[in-house]
Design goal:
- By secondary structure, this protein is an alpha/beta fold.
- It has 2 domains: 170 residues, Flavodoxin domain (Rossmann fold, 3-Layer(aba) Sandwich); 53 residues, Alpha-Beta Plaits (2-Layer Sandwich), CATH 3.30.70.20.
- The protein is 34% helix and 18% strand.
- It contains 8 helices and 9 strands.
- A 5-stranded parallel beta sheet has the order 2-1-3-4-5.
- The longest helix has 23 residues.
- The radius of gyration is 18 Å and the shape is globular.
- InterPro entries: 4Fe4S_Fe-S-bd (IPR017896), 4Fe4S_Fe_S_CS (IPR017900), EFR1-like (IPR047964), Flavodoxin_dom (IPR026816), Flavoprotein-like_sf (IPR029039), PSI_iron-sulfur_center (IPR050157).
- Pfam families: Flavodoxin_5.
- This is 4Fe-4S ferredoxin-type domain-containing protein.
Length: 259
């Protein structure tokens, strides 16, 4: 069967990167978002020769939606050859290796683990300013050039091991993930809706990949299961949704083909 590329993308960065790698690396492939609920992913994974998994990294952690997907379909990965590609803002330590560890009991063969830096989508976190359009475009161009360079290395037989070095776990766990795990439950419940600014358009309800938002009693409410993807925050036309503060973002970042 074709090479299989499966991914989760919050605001479009991971989708872009996965599409670039698939087009450059594989002569015949299928690429799917794990949000495509009409697909039989177990069968797709069983039939695939090689599988590439893609996801963004949030504070050196895998998104809950991706982790749940891999756990649900873990038996289908038995004896499969996989590669993992993650997108990140700055660094993630062992971000790409998280999927490998989760699937280690399936006797997988890990071919490549790759980290690609992409523009910041944490638009309500003031310490990380959102890039202007030209700055974001420049960073995406830099990412594209890195993808081309990595593809060239792979075609020449090099095994890419980002996140699998001896120090990668130390960087991922102690620099970010230890703190993030302690805060995880609180963060999943923290999404803030400014009801004074909200126009009740319900765009966010339709966009949420984990059904965390509902329209009830004439207002948007949260179900306390946010996956921290920032899709709703960056898509709200009134900029009325935030996570780290109670002020919506001054700028938003989302690719038009985000999923």
């Amino acid at each position: 069967m074709d090479d299989l590329y499966i991914y989760f993308s919050g605001t479009g960065n991971t989708k872009y990167v996965m599409e670039q790698f698939a087009a450059e690396l594989s002569s015949s492939y299928a690429i799917h978002s794990i949000e495509e609920k009409n697909l039989d992913f177990t069968t797709l994974i069983h039939k695939a020769d090689t599988i590439t998994i893609g996801y963004p990294i949030y504070e050196s952690m895998m998104p809950h939606i991706m982790e749940d997907f891999l756990v649900e379909h873990q038996n289908a990965f038995e004896l499969k050859t996989i590669s993992v590609i993650v997108t990140q803002m700055l660094f993630s330590g062992d971000g790409a290796n998280l999927a490998c560890k989760l699937l280690k009991h399936q006797d997988i063969k890990v071919e490549h683990t790759i980290h690609i830096n992409m523009p910041n989508n944490l638009t309500d976190l003031r310490i990380f300013p959102v890039k202007t359009h030209s700055e974001a475009s420049a960073k995406i161009e830099k990412a594209h050039n890195k993808i081309i360079a990595i593809v060239d290395q792979i075609k020449r037989g090099k095994n890419i091991k980002s996140g699998r070095m001896w120090y990668s776990w130390i960087l991922g766990f102690f620099v970010q993930r230890l703190y993030a795990r302690m805060m995880d439950k609180a963060m999943r419940k923290r999404l803030y809706i400014n009801h004074k600014e909200c126009s009740k358009c319900r765009i966010c309800v339709g966009l949420c990949p984990v059904d965390n938002l509902e329209f009830k009693d004439n207002r948007i409410i949260t179900m306390n299961q946010c996956t921290l993807c920032y899709r709703c925050i960056n898509s709200c036309p009134e900029q009325a949704i935030s996570l780290f503060t109670k002020k919506g973002p001054k700028k938003q970042y989302i690719r038009p083909d985000y999923r």
